[in-house]
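Sample 3 of the quickstart, ligand 4-nitrophenyl beta-D-glucopyranoside:
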Amino acid sequence: MSAPKTFPDGFLWGSATAAYQVEGAAWEDGRGACIWDTYARTPGRVHEGHNGDVACDHYHRYADDVALMQKLNLGAYRFSTSWARVMPDGRTVNRAGLDFYSRLTDELLSRDVVPWLTLYHWDLPQALEDAGGWPSRDTAYRFVDYAAAVQSALGDRINFWTTLNEPWCSAFLGYGSGRHAPGRTDGADALRAAHHLMLGHGLAVQDLRSRDSSLTLGLTLNFADVTPADPQEPGDLDAARRIDGLSNRYFAEPLFHGAYAPDILEDVRELWPADLVVDGDLEVISTPTDVLGVNYYSGNTVRGVGPDEAHAAADQARADGPASDSVGSEHVEFLALDVERTGMGWEVRPQGLTQLLVRLDRDYTGPAGTALYVTENGAAYDDVPDQDGFVQDDERLRYVREHLGAVHDAIEQGVEVKGYFLWSLLDNFEWAFGYDKRFGIVRVDYDTLQRIPKASARWYAEVAGSHQVE
Ligand code: PNW
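Result:
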């Protein structure tokens, strides 16, 4: 057996969730409708018509859930606040909504769990979608007001603030492919949404910084490891450049270099709205941040295809998860190679995480002095509970072990990675897949809402307690 991998002192061991996926209590204490409430009620959008009305009932069970975190030695909890709970119409503050997050924060602090807050994990108030949604520039300004309201309630107790979770998903799945709420399918709107999300991020960082210069600020992006099917084949190399560009560099370049990459702009030229970028926007977007959250699940192998094959390839891509759904991904085929896959069908590629962290450090965060945290990593598998509801989830355990090994490899190569948040603490509402896909290290019995830690949770508790992966 190889030597145990020891992580640096102060490394944060956490788990993550998001408001719409776990809270439930969708219509309590004045919460307004969000785009996922609407989308989930639209026939054919979400597996078997599931929705987040009850979810894990975390809204009522948060104290028990935080106690469980402490029992599992978790030092940090990444959660998101629901904009529609805090501002039911997207504009007016609802005290009762803020109070929930205040109670949650106090509970975490009382159990020595560091709160890590995400302001936007995809649940835009429906009223703001009705007013134009993210393709409308005004939404970025509404986001700043929302951020300020949350900061004024929780800023005295929470140090880590991230603005957005995975703007790629919000923009490209929400407004491009329509596979996420609000389910719109307009390439130009997807580009508008992406720009306004990033503008909202930059404006919010500036505003939060001016309110309290001691806050630790940043955002979370999702990344995929993209490789060409044949590195000697120019068409495959170009396909890999294009997908890497749209899924990875599209957000990182403006944030860290203050400009959209010219090759990607060229790829989306026909869709690009001429009036989209206003003078000064890129300076706002590239406002320096303290942390970059990295969400990593999978790798993709891509091949360039001719125009005739492109449509068939686009259909195939639906099943391929991360990175396959970008605007401008025509002429690219995502190969279904004979590799290990999770219950989502996503390729298991731990070494891709090492390469990604090394690259982010070299190209973006290292020079900027921005710290890296893995804010999501984990896997869905088809869990089989025994009579007591216990799940011996060896596959998930192995997935996490290998990815933690990959993080450790990056640290050994000199990359400063300061924490890891396992997705997810609980089985929860997996977006378009409803409750059918389970990512939790803790099983949720949806009939009784009972929580039952899986084998992976017991194992992760030992890792978090010892700072070591055997
Ligand atoms: C992330 N894709 O979602 C989210 O941040 C979580 O809320 C989610 O539960 C988790 O990963 C697991 O899916 C993604 O299709 C959803 O590329 C879809 C994609 C990527 C990330």
